[in-house]
Amino acid sequence: MIVNTTNEHLHITDHLGSVRAVLDQSMTVLEQNDYYPFGLRHPNASLKTTANRYRYNGKEEIAADATSDYGARQYSAEFCQWLQVDPLSEKYYSWSPYNFCVGNPLKYVDMDGNNPIYDVNGNLIGTDDGGLQGEAIIMNKVNFVQGMAHDEAMRYNLGLDNFTDDEAKSAFEESFSGLKDRPDWDGVVTDQEARAWWNNGSGKDLYIDVSKIDLSPLEKSDFSEKDDNRLQFNFFLSPGASKTTGRVHGTLTMKLKNRETGEIGFYLDKNGYLDTYDFNGDGRIVRDATTWMARQIVGEGKGYGFKPYGKNPILKK
Fold first, then answer.
1. Domain identity same for 175 and 225
2. Spatial contact of 13 and 58, defined as CB atoms under 8 Å apart
3. What pLDDT, on a 0 to 100 scale, did the predictor assign at position 228?
């Protein structure tokens, strides 16, 4: 949603994030967009236009040089290529360093440099510290650590030409093209998305940007003054807590790493999970009771875990 001081405009996007229509508050269509495969807007005189600058892939158009701003590089839909060399080009010798979406913009999206990570068998094994959006990194699983720094991940990147076989490459392509449809694409999972993944996600892990977790009403004073200030906080039962945090994560185990700055760190379980979304009892009376009640609401499904990435959140109070 794009908001200014007088009007609110709703952007309707397609599976690539491209803005297909712009509506006002009364749902009147102000702008319609169709695109050629590589992003050039179709010159159809019947389609309305506005002063909106965000169109293909949801990126801002720069009128001065007819490009789109993707952050790290500028893209030209007219020439169907980047205007700067791909910083990962040494890992993709079979492709031009200026190629866009490995020649298939109907299936892929080049974002801004955050990276999903795959093994050489084409399996998604996690993310670097930036999440799922961006060009894929391929590495041997032995070198992978969930949420690892992007620069470190790049040192192990084998490139798209190093899958074990064509079957592995096909598995990668199928998974990578579907990342944008996952509930954790933006690093945030809502209550509704968590339930749907429980019902239909086959137990596959989700990846959470910890910097986006709403930790209210938690304050620095809730943590002990001792060096070991480990705290288990039940957001589901705490008055004033975020409903999303409570219903999706329930109880989180945290530590105040820096009392001055308010930086929070999280404890992970033996499987590297920030939390698990399941409805199994663990012997804690209150948790078991609330878990049983929640199970009656969400129905049957398969449990899964949340694996973290991103910068630690900061408590302001």
1. no
2. yes
3. 80
Asked if residue 97 lies in contact with residue 135, where contact means CB atoms within 8 angstroms, the answer is no
Structure token pair of residue 34: 């169709």
Query: What's the pTM value of the predicted model, to 2 decimals?
Result: 0.65
On whether both 166 and 229 belong to a single domain, the answer is no
- The reply to whether 172 and 224 lie within a common domain is no
266 neighbors 308 (Cβ within 8 angstroms): yes
Same domain (yes/no): 211, 169: no
Write down the residue that tokens 């409570």 correspond to: 246
Tens-place pLDDT, residues 273-283:
999 988 776 66
Task: Take residue 298 and report the two structure tokens written for it.
Answer: 């969400």
Residues 164 and 201 in one domain: no
Helix (H, G, I), strand (E, B) or coil at 29: strand
pLDDT (tens digit per residue) in 7-17: 788 888 887 78
**Beta strands 116-118 and 137-138: pairing type?**
parallel
Report the distance separating Cα 292 and Cα 277, nearest Å: 13
Q: For residue 208, which amino acid is it?
A: I
Q: Are residues 151 and 201 in the same domain?
A: no
